[in-house]
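Data card: per-record layout.
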Amino acid sequence: MLKMISRPAVKLVERYLPDPYIFVLLLTIIAAVAAIAVERQTPLAVLRMWGDGFWNLLTFSMQMLLVLVTGFMLASSPPVKRLLQKLASVAKSPGAPSCWSPMSPWPPAGSTGALAWSSVRCLPRSWPS
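The structure for this 129-residue chain is written out next.
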């Protein structure tokens, strides 16, 4: 029933909402024009600043990727997986691991969601998904 009710709204959004890339292009152009007009920068200086910022963002993105991959690898290791399965078997309700993960004393659990995600994936099979 919900699917039938939401179908017209989904069709409307799919038809008229532009691609996110259009928003990126428009906001980039607006920011460049504002930098040229307000900050009195030359177009070449604005282009240079944009390029430098991109590579700084790429460095940060790679650091976050390493944090996530390392956390996932740790959570997938056999000893940690066994521990997470034992913790998940103690849970009395489906939402309990979601409450436990932020309170985990493990430093990696605070820095990545991989351990929390693995604890939710290790729920006993008797619980409905």
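Known properties of this structure: Residues 43-76 form the longest helix (34 residues). Confidence is low (pLDDT under 50) at residues 114-123.

See the next section for split statistics.
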